[in-house]
Amino acid sequence: MKQSTLATAGFGLVSKRTRKRVFLDEMNLVVPWTELVSLIQPFSAKAGGAKGGRPPFPVETMLRIHFLQQWFGLSDPAMEEALHDTPLYCEFAHLDPGATRLPDESTILRFRHLLEEHELSIQLLATINATLATKGMMLKTGTVVDATLIAAPTSTKNDSGERDPEMHQTKKGNQWHFGMKAHIGVDADSGLVHTVIGTAANVHDVTQGNALLHGEESVVFADAGYQGVHKRDDAKSVNWHVAMRPGKRRALDKNSPWGNLLDKAEQLKASVRAKVEHPFRVLKCQFGFTKVRYKGLAKNTSQLMTLFALSNLWMVRGMLLNRAKA
Fold this sequence. Notes:
globular; 6-stranded mixed beta sheet; 6 strands; 13% strand; alpha/beta; 42% helix
């Protein structure tokens, strides 16, 4: 007979703080749970409704589970299994790992549909940004705009026998991509995202440039793909600093005073535009979001807004934690 140990009896002696635990502990401290729960609570199911049944799980618990899905790239069924397999996730969601009832994939799905139906993802982003703005982390005097491609499944082995009709293909360089575009406007000082627009991949960046502005900035930075944005019908009265086309910049005579000055000006503009790449890196490298999960632009855009809201918190978590300790 195998001898029982403290571990098998339920007494874990491992004290190592894993990277995942550190990550969740930090995010637990920086997410404004009270404000976000107050935003969602009016739309949630009430206990003891007309149909009776089991009481619903608390809004905060479901929101924490929803955020776990975004951080670790879990589908609804995978999230349900993770709650049964990973005590750390239950701890973060304020659930008892030994409970006889945990949220199943249908419950998790209904909560996501609740956010989509009432367009709460954009309000989550606005609420988090308002919290950061009160702490002086968003100056709103300048904006940087850019877009990135998000791949979509190209397989036609599904019920309809075709690819997602709302996704399209586009050519970047010498390679074709199928999916959607995430257009974002970020604060030029902090690099925090304030506006998100989702479109098909074949929509040109310049068509969304002015829609990415919040209206309080006086200067906007963009790459060469936004040439002519200030001449469009929806143009706003801001000072655009758009990068010079690569071919034109290569043709500059850097040995001449004027050519050298123009080249240095492009370098300065590029150093500001680099801020917009940080949220994309968090999205794709930290959160592992490289391919859309759902069908249609609306659902995927809703997820993008949540992801960028969480990326804002992740990017400034150090400052928020230091202020909490002070």
